[in-house]
Design brief:
Layout: H1 6-27, H2 31-52, H3 59-68, E1 74-75, H4 80-87, H5 92-103, H6 106-115, H7 121-146, E2 153-154, H8 155-181, H9 190-195
Parallel strand pairs: 1-2
Helix pairs in contact: 1-2, 2-6, 5-8, 6-8, 7-8
Length: about 200
Amino acid sequence: MLTFSVLVIAIAIVIYLCFFLVRWIHKKEKIENIIFKTCLYVYSCGVIKYTLFPVLISSQLLKDRAEDITGPFFNLIPFHTINEIFSIRINIESIMQIVLNIVLFVPLGILLPLCFNKISWKTVFLIGLSTSICIELIQLMQNIIYQAPFKFTDIDDIMLNVFGNVIGYVLFLTCKPLFQRLGLCPKITSANLEEN
């Protein structure tokens, strides 16, 4: 089993140093932009760790997993899983699953406009949606490869992730005057409004 171990963390650090830090040193970006983009990178690594790891690479583990777990690999019916949680098996673990799916994407909605000043709400929405879809598709591919529902692929997860992303963007808009006073994002001008 491949976990999010020291090796994976080391690779993430090397990628950061090669593609981000060197580029930022040459471009001489503002320190707050470097901090926000670093936060976005660390957040992205965390999402990958939480959603896609561990990766099963042992044939025996794959066989054991296939024998231990049976059932569907995915759900394509909107609100099916959420409805099931509230009508059949409501418990703290199930509620936490819903809450965590929302909370997982809240930072994305906050960090994207802080990292990229001219980004529009539509772009933030589309990035959140496409990121969530990619995660679910990768999880589905893992299930197909393992021939077992190792990571359950669910359209409800996509909806909850996108809802969290929207909440994050609304929080950013709410705090934007404060960010502007602190000089963390540019003030709104007529040109900005026309672009958005």
